[in-house]
Amino acid sequence: MKTNPFATLSAVVMTMGSLAPSPATAQTIPAIPAGSLTAFPTVVQTGTKPTLTWNISYPSVIKDYVTIDSSSTSASTVTPKQTLYADVRILGAGVTASYAGGSYAFVPTEAVMSYGSTSSSSYKRIFYGTNLNVNPNTIVSTSGILTNSKVDINKPLRFGGRYYYNNQWGTFCKSSDGTDNVRTLVNGDIPPSNIPAYNAPSLESFLRPYLDSTGRVKIGPMDVIVFMELTHSAAQKSNPGYDLQDMVILVTFRTN
Q1: Terminus-to-terminus CA distance in the chain, angstroms?
Q2: What residues contact 41, with CB distance under 8 A and at least 6 apart?
Q3: What are phi and psi of 132, to 5 degrees?
Q4: DSSP state of 221
Q5: Which of 16-25, 119-128, 195-204 has the lowest mean pLDDT?
Q6: Distance CA 252, CA 29 (A)
Q7: What are the residues facing 209 on neighbouring strands?
Q8: Is 134 helix (H, G, I), strand (E, B) or coil?
Q9: Strand pairing partners for 40?
Q10: pLDDT tens, 126-137?
């Protein structure tokens, strides 16, 4: 459980299966190569050979469809290489406030998304609530940002978030800040060392289904996962509370 130096906040480790909903269904088609094989003619005489025709469809790989910019000025910006559609799910909101006696309560947290702009005003809300309001199987509405979930070629998507505590907002962290408090990874990536190991007690239960036993990201081939640190600044990376689990978003891209 981590503590914010400005307000007593922490990311809680929940009991698996009690508060954490079931993991979201990731895009996995095609997950393995698939194809067809035909022969013509189907009946041949001895000594003759049919003509074989085959077709193979290889698995989709998200980096064939989007560019993920991890530079210092555009951290975790996702830019489509062609027109795509994006389904956004909230996986978890891990900010809590702790109280005397060791009790805690989830803190309302906001997730936002920006499309095609770097201005702060372009970030629009896609979620507000506590972790108890999260359903990772529900696609959140992006109607105020995207039209029919469509993202055009070369128009970037950016993400951000903040928490609300003691009648005031925490720091607004976003992709266009020039920091890496918002990180975007794909299947097979090794998470930043700030994210607790797969078997670590401090790893949020809502995040565990999206890491494999080696600690690598385990999501669909057309997914990206967004990790946010909202209670500590980028200058506090050595603090154990800097764990990038305060808001976690899954974005599934599709071509139609």
Answers
A1: 41
A2: 50
A3: -70, -20
A4: T
A5: 16-25
A6: 12
A7: none
A8: coil
A9: 51
A10: 999 999 999 999
d(CA 160, CA 124): 9
Is pTM, for the whole model, over 0.85?
no
Of 222, 220, 219, 240, the residue nearest 231 (C-alpha): 240
CA geometry: angle 146, 223, 170, nearest 5 deg: 65
Number of helices and strands in the chain (H, E)? 0, 17
Is the separation of the CB atoms in 151 and 200 below 8 Å?
Answer: no
Helix (H, G, I), strand (E, B) or coil at 243: coil
CA distances (Å), origin 164, targets 21, 95, 99, 171:
23, 10, 16, 9
Please state, in angstroms and rounded to a whole number, the distance separating the CA atoms of residues 176 and 120. Answer: 8
Backbone phi, psi, residue 217, to 5°: -65, 130
Q: What is the pLDDT of residues 101-112, one digit of tens each?
A: 778 889 999 999
**Quick check: 144 and 204 in contact, CB under 8 A?**
no
SS3 146: coil
Write the burial class of residue 95 (CB in 10 Å: 0-12 exposed, 13-18 middle, 19+ buried). buried
